[in-house]
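Sample entry follows:

:::
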Amino acid sequence: HAFVFVVLNGERQHYYRFQTDEFSYASSHEEYYIRVGNNVFTHGGVSLDLRPRKGDDAQLVLNGTLSFERVNPWPVSLMGLGAMGP
């Protein structure tokens, strides 16, 4: 399955579960783009439409759009491979 995980104020966690066919992404030569259900993640922003479904560990309804400007990418090097580790 696919999922979106939201942590609110470092305390409450919300886990939204999606079917695998609700997940899509751009190929490696395209711009950064991920879609999970009606939720879209790009370099330019995030568009969310999160509503708890049966089987989710979530109570929060979250809907909105964030736009990013002047984004500085996470520094990646041979010794530090990224935010998720080596």
User: Anything to note?
Assistant: The CA atoms of residues 3 and 73 lie 23 Å apart. DSSP finds no helices and seven strands in the chain. The radius of gyration is 15 Å. The chain has a mean pLDDT of 89.
